[in-house]
Amino acid sequence: MPIEHLPEAWRPAARDFRDWLATDKGVLLIYAVVFAGRTSTYLFQDGWLLPHVLDIHAPLVSSMQWLIATLIVAYATISRSKKIEVVGLTVAVLMLVIWGILFAWTGWAEFTARGVLYIGLALIGVYTVWRGKSTTIRVKGGGTDGAAEFGGRE
Q1: How far apart are CA 98 and CA 119, in angstroms?
Q2: CA 65 – CA 55 distance, rounded (Å)
Q3: For 32, 80, 87, 129, which has the most beta carbons within 10 A of its beta carbon?
């Protein structure tokens, strides 16, 4: 829904929120929500789900590392410090990559079914932050914008 359809009093806050999400804070917010959801799974583990190698050998360590990582990422999301933001992004990416790689110890099938998803989420975050910092814009095509080809202008 476009911001212009909101009540006039809400528009400045909606624009501010949109602009905030367009920074690295948007990635941190996504990671904070994902990490909070992942951490909450320790409250209701299902027996049919093959556990992670750390859940088998050190269940308290694995749950505490998710909780700590969640708190760091959540704090980085609301912090005004660029250094803390970098720490939050680094912790999130390292946590996801390490957790994904450790699925290799549970077997190749488990690694390809679950581990690659953690690693992929980390790589998407790295790519998004890197792409957001890029000042290069590549435009392919000719000298027109293509609107005339589709009946937009003549």
Answers
A1: 8
A2: 11
A3: 32
Cβ atoms of residues 121 and 34 within 8 Å: yes
Q: How many CB atoms lie within 10 A of CB 118?
A: 22
Tokens of 139: 């435009």
Compute how many other C-beta atoms are within 10 angstroms of the C-beta atom of residue 66.
20
CA distances from 83 to 6, 14, 87, 93, 99 (A): 35, 26, 6, 15, 24
Cα–Cα distance for residue pair 32/73, rounded to 1 Å? 6
Q: How far apart are CA 28 and CA 41, in angstroms?
A: 20
- Tokens standing for residue 50: 């093959």
Tokens of 127: 């790519």
pLDDT per position as a tens digit, 106-124: 888 889 988 999 999 999 9
Q: Treating both helix axes as pointing N-terminal to C-terminal, what angle do 82-102 and 116-133 enclose, rounded to 10 degrees?
A: 150
Whether the CA torsion 92, 90, 86, 83 is positive or negative: it is: positive
